[in-house]
Amino acid sequence: MQAIHNKTEMDVLQKKLEFCLDEKEELERYVSDLLNKLEEERSSRLEKESIQQTELRSLSADVPTINNPNDQVELKTMVDAIAAASQREAEVHEKAFKLSQENDELRSKLKGYVEDNKQLLELFEQKAAERNCKILNEGGINENVTTNHTDAGLHEKGEEEQVELKKVVDNLEQQLTEMHEENDKLMGLYERAMQERDEFKRMFSSLGTPNRTEPREFECPNHHNALLLSSFSLTFTKL
Fold first, then answer.
1. Is residue 163's pLDDT more than 70?
2. Which of 26, 30, 28 is nearest to 174 (CA)?
3. Inter-CA distances, 151 with 41, 140, 167, Å
4. Which of 115, 119, 183, 211 could anchor a disulfide with 66, C-beta 3.0 to 4.6 Å?
5. pLDDT category of residue 151 using cuts at 50, 70 and 90
6. Domain extents for the chain?
7. In sequence order, what are the residues at sequence separation of 6 or more whose Cβ sits closer than 8 angstroms to the Cβ of residue 155?
8. Per residue, what are the HEC states of the chain?
9. How far apart (Å, rounded) are the C-alpha atoms in residues 188 and 123?
10. Could you tell me the pTM of the whole model?
11. What is the pLDDT of residues 179-236, one digit of tens each?
């Protein structure tokens, strides 16, 4: 009866382990989807920045000086265009920030599942050891050859199950390491995007502002971008 009870407990543990593996696969698919979305956002932003750079080059060639009210109107239009571009950039940063938060939460959940699997493995090993010990004690030295063979088979089967569970845990740890590597790659993509953004800002600065009657309209978007960059960098540092 004790052996049947132990076998039932082992089956329950096996089902729990399979459930954890299913949850882990679902999390991996969700992380993959998030990475794809972030890559799409980055590609879209690069295309928009390329278009904006082309437009700004055209504006800088058409408006070399500001000598009359019409030129001031054109400058105001250019400032509005820059402000709109900054707003779009801020929206992209906000989406990337949310994606990074979701990715961080998924990593925490995956770590929790790995720890749960380790605990299940330890509990399984403990139950298997208790079962084998009780079988040996109940049998005593007068057990016949058939019983000895049966016990040996059960012991061997228990060891094989332990080895398989250890392999599963090692595989989960390996996949967690791979997820860390993917996050490092994601951080590299983000740093590259920030470099491109700095080049974009330097190009804005190179246009010059001959008439300083409206300095706040130039400075406000850059100040907003600096705050967003600081917040987003702190988030990725925590990763």
1. yes
2. 28
3. 61, 12, 24
4. 211
5. low
6. 2-238
7. 132
8. CHHHHHHHHHHHHHHHHHHHHHHHHHHHHHHHHHHHHHHHHHHHHHHHHHHHHHHHHHHHHHCCCCCCHHHHHHHHHHHHHHHHHHHHHHHHHHHHHHHHHHHHHHHHHHHHHHHHHHHHHHHHHHHHHHHHHHHHHHHCCCCCHHHHHHHHHHHHHHHHHHHHHHHHHHHHHHHHHHHHHHHHHHHHHHHHHHHHHHHHHHHHHHCCCCCCCCHHHHHHHHHHHHHHHHHHHHHHHHC
9. 41
10. 0.30
11. 777 777 777 777 777 787 777 777 777 765 444 444 443 343 444 444 444 444 444 4
Report which residue type is found at 54.
T
Q: Scanning the structure block, which residue is given the tokens 């992380």? A: 31
Residue carrying structure tokens 């459930």: 19
Question: Identity (one letter) of the amino acid at 14?
Answer: Q
Q: And the tokens for 119?
A: 């605990």
